[in-house]
Structure formats: C-alpha cells, structure tokens
Amino acid sequence: MHKLVLIRHGQSQWNLDNRFSGWADVDLTAQGLEEAKEAGRLLKEAGYSFDVAHTSVLKRAVRTLWGVQDEMGLMWIPVLTDWRLNERHYGALTGLNKAETAAKFGEDQVKVWRRSYDIPPPALERADNESVHDPRYAGLDPALIPDTECLKDTVARVLPYWHEVLAPAIRAGQRVVVAAHGNSLRALVKYLDGISDEDIVELNIPNGVPLVYEFDENLKPLRHYYLGDAEAIAAKMAAVANQGKAR
Ligand SMILES: O=C(O)[C@@H](CO)OP(=O)(O)O
C-alpha cells in the first residue's frame, strides 16, 4: 500500500486578516508556525517519515514544510519547490478583505468566486500583475502566469504535477509529503476522490493539519483521513467556510 501526506500551510497573516491571498507571498503568523510544528509532532508520533518533500514557491507553504521537517528531524531530505503547487491566483480580489467583499458584492457572489469550479474572480490587468516581474517565475513562459484562476484552471496545472512528478515518486515507493494551499490541494483532492464540480464547492481544507491518503498499487485511493482531534479539525474547516460571510 502507498501513502501520501498533504498539508495545507498553517495560519498566514492574511488568513488572520481575512484577506484573499492567492499568489501574494504572505508569511505565517506565530499560530501558523505552531500549527506546522504540531503537524510535524503528530506525524512523528504516528510513526511517519518521508523521503522527499514538495511545496510551492510561496513562503507560507515552504515555512510550514520547514516546521514539519524540523519537528520530524527531517531537515535533510530533498525538497522540490514548484509554482504548480501555488495557491489558486485570486486575480483582482488579491489583498481584499473577504467579509468586506461579501458586504459589497453579496455572500453568494463571494462563494462563487471562492468555491465555484469554473468561474474565476475578476482578472488583474497584466500591467498590474507583479508575478510577471518576480524572479521566482523568471523561467516560466509568461503566458503560463495567470491574471486570475478558477479551480478548473488550478486543476489544469496541479494535475500535470501529480502525473509527472508525485505519482511516479509514490509508485516507486518514495514516502512523499506535500505542503501546499487550500485551493491547490482542493484541486488534487478533487481528482483523487473523483469529486464532482458541484460537490467540490463545499470542500474546505483546514490549515496545518496532515491529510493522509492511502492508495492501492495502481494509486487508486483506498481511504483518506486527517491526523488530529476530529472536533478541532471540523471547527477549522467551518472557520474557512465562514471567511466569506459578510459578518
Ligand atoms: O485567500 C486565499 O488565497 C485562499 C486560501 O487562504 O482563500 P479561500 O479559502 O477564500 O479560497
């Protein structure tokens, strides 16, 4: 049996401030760092170890991974960073407060922007898109740098990473951990579990909690589960869903 561990980053400053983050490179809060370490402790206690780690090019995911590695005594394993694991690009909503946006445009509209499968948030003007000049994307065809993304667009970049990088490593017997983001992980989970475009709307991934997938030898998921206290995890998922309320 193969296993994969997915972890959404711990609380970021813009999670705390309730702002749309997307590709903005926001750091973890003290709580977020503690969540990362707690995830590492949980994994270690449960007997997990990893041969390789994958993360995005955004520091909230990278630093979460560092916290996990540090607690597990695994600072030495290879780490691959890749833009395809980045958060979904939030377009012109990036930086806006989610509750204020809901008060202005309505909670239903904000839910469409946050959770619909194929309706993207309003796009940034290319001239306003700082990622185009960001050295971390310098090797990338500028046409691949999004001005906004819906989940479907995120699936279109996350799945090649799964098929080309993650799945072959898991199949070869490597123990893999992925530290990424709410929506890049929703994209992967949608594919792994065959979740419909309608049902994915209600899926929210909590910050800083290890999500374990068990696969058969063909990488068909057998089951998945979060590590940690079930009630606390449910409360974290509800808190993510409620970020789009007007208050
Ligand atoms: O702001 C974002 O980039 C994401 C994740 O924090 O938020 P949401 O849950 O609203 O998609």
From TrEMBL:
Site note Transition state stabilizer applies to: H181
Which positions are catalytic residues?
A: H9, E87
Q: Which residues form a coiled coil?
A: none
One MF term in the entry's GO annotations: phosphoglycerate mutase activity
Gene3D superfamilies from the xrefs?
Phosphoglycerate mutase-like (3.40.50.1240)
Check the record and name the Pfam families matching this protein. His_Phos_1
| Keyword Repeat listed | no
Biochemical pathway: Carbohydrate degradation; glycolysis; pyruvate from D-glyceraldehyde 3-phosphate: step 3/5
The EC code for this enzyme is 5.4.2.11
GO annotation (BP), single: glycolytic process
Q: Which reaction does it catalyse?
A: (2R)-2-phosphoglycerate = (2R)-3-phosphoglycerate
Concerning PROSITE patterns, the annotation shows: PG_MUTASE (PS00175)
Write out the entry's keywords from A to Z: Gluconeogenesis, Glycolysis, Isomerase
The family database entries (PANTHER family) matched by this protein are listed as: PHOSPHOGLYCERATE MUTASE
State the oligomer form and interacting partners.
Homodimer.
What is this protein's function per UniProt?
Catalyzes the interconversion of 2-phosphoglycerate and 3-phosphoglycerate.
- NCBIfam families given in the database record: pgm_1 (TIGR01258), PRK14115.1 (NF010713)
Protein name, as recorded? 2,3-bisphosphoglycerate-dependent phosphoglycerate mutase
Task: Give the organism the record lists.
Answer: Dyella marensis
